[in-house]
Amino acid sequence: MSSAEVQEHDKTDVAKTVTIVVNGRPKTVPKNEEITFDQVVALAFPNPPTGDGVQFTVQYTRGHSNKPAGTLVEGQSVKVKDGMEFDVTPTNRS
User: Is there a contact between 8 and 42 (Cβ–Cβ < 8 Å)?
Assistant: First the structure.
């Protein structure tokens, strides 16, 4: 599912969505699904910074009890939970 689909996913069916917080802003995503590293970055930065060596760090908290906090790296995903928080930070590899 693309990041645009995550944001626009059937907003009329509230029972099938959860609200997560990405960089302090609430976002609605499908319930019982996983969100990928790339989708979280796209939600945080619709126009991401570019350039040589720009990478992103994605940390989350308030996740499911088996892994309530952690870090996502490119290629990974995590199951979403209502109220889950993501912090996405652009970094510059030097």
Answer: no
Question: What does the chain come to in residues?
Answer: 94
Here the tokens at position 94 are 């030097």
Distance in Å from the first CA to the final CA of the chain: 32
Note the Cα 80 to chain centre separation in Å. Answer: 9
Could you tell me what percentage of the chain is helix, strand and coil, using 3-state DSSP and rounding each to the nearest 5? 20, 40, 45
Model confidence, pTM: 0.80
Is residue 80 within 8 Å of residue 20, measured between CB atoms? yes
Q: pLDDT per residue over 37-83, tens digit each? A: 999 999 999 998 888 888 999 999 999 888 899 999 999 999 999 99
Q: Are 82 and 27 in contact (CB under 8 A)?
A: no
User: How many C-beta atoms surround the C-beta of residue 84 within 10 A?
Assistant: 22
